[in-house]
């Protein structure tokens, strides 16, 4: 049986995930345990459920699910452990013609959540330079992953605000693994 917040009678599917609201994802995330570093290995599909919120759905589609946009169509993330306590990863974006770009890298470790202080797999985007962050500006984006069930992982992301607190969390769900870790397109491009 899967660990996480599932009951014996409850099974998660992508359809069920997409029926969740943002608040439901955040509530579930708060109840879930941290995922083991070795469990997140390979490529994972990404979902951003916003059930019942047409405004959020349209905004998400424009920014995250748009092959013609600056980022591309978000397919998900990929992870590889580098040790028992740290790892690395990237985001996957589809471009026109079906090409997949692997960039927007992050480092990972198990740590204390910046939101509730409980364990989570922490993803630090500031470990790399990203083309969408202006030169000289610090990248404070941190994603945090917890396990909902086998093959289903809930994520939240925050940035540091001007007063030093964290922003309201964004949310996403990872499903998989769906493929092997292939490495970023240019392993040196985003190095600091």
CATH topology: Lipocalin
Number of strands: 9
Low-confidence stretches: 1-8
- % residues in beta strands: 35-45%
Query: Strands of the biggest beta sheet: in what spatial order?
Result: 1-3-4-5-6-7-8-9
CATH architecture: Beta Barrel
User: How much helicity do the residues have?
Assistant: 10-25%
Order of helices and strands: HHEHEEEEEEEE
Give the overall shape: globular
Please compute the radius of gyration using only Cα atoms.
16 Å
Let me know the largest β-sheet: 8 strands, antiparallel, barrel
| Quaternary status | single chain
Q: Average pLDDT value? A: 91
Q: What is the count of helical runs? A: 3
The structure class reads mainly beta
How would you characterize the overall build of this protein?
With about 190 residues, the chain is mainly beta. The protein has one domain: GXWXG domain (Lipocalin), CATH 2.40.128. About 15% of the residues lie in helices and about 35% in strands. The chain is built from 3 helices and 9 strands, in the order ααβαββββββββ. A hairpin with a 4-residue loop joins β3 and β4. It is globular and about 45 Å long.
Summarize the structure.
The chain has 192 residues and is mainly β. Helix content is 14%, strand content 37%.
């Amino acid at each position: 049986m899967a660990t996480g917040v599932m009951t014996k009678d409850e099974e998660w599917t992508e359809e069920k995930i997409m029926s969740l609201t943002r608040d439901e994802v955040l509530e579930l995330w708060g109840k879930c345990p941290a995922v083991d570093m070795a469990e997140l290995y390979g490529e994972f599909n990404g979902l951003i459920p916003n059930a019942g919120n047409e405004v959020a759905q349209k905004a998400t589609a424009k920014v995250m699910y748009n092959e013609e946009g600056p980022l591309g169509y978000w397919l998900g993330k990929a992870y590889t452990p580098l040790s028992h306590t740290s790892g690395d990863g990237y985001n996957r974006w589809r471009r026109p013609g079906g090409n997949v770009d692997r960039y927007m890298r992050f480092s990972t470790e198990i740590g204390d959540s910046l939101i509730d202080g409980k364990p989570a797999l922490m993803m630090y985007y500031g470990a790399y330079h990203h083309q969408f962050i202006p030169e000289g500006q610090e990248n404070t984006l941190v994603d945090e992953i917890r396990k909902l069930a086998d093959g289903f992982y809930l994520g939240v992301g925050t940035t540091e605000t001007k007063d030093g607190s964290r922003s309201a969390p964004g949310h996403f769900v990872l499903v998989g693994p769906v493929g092997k870790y292939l490495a970023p397109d240019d392993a040196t491009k985003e190095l600091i």
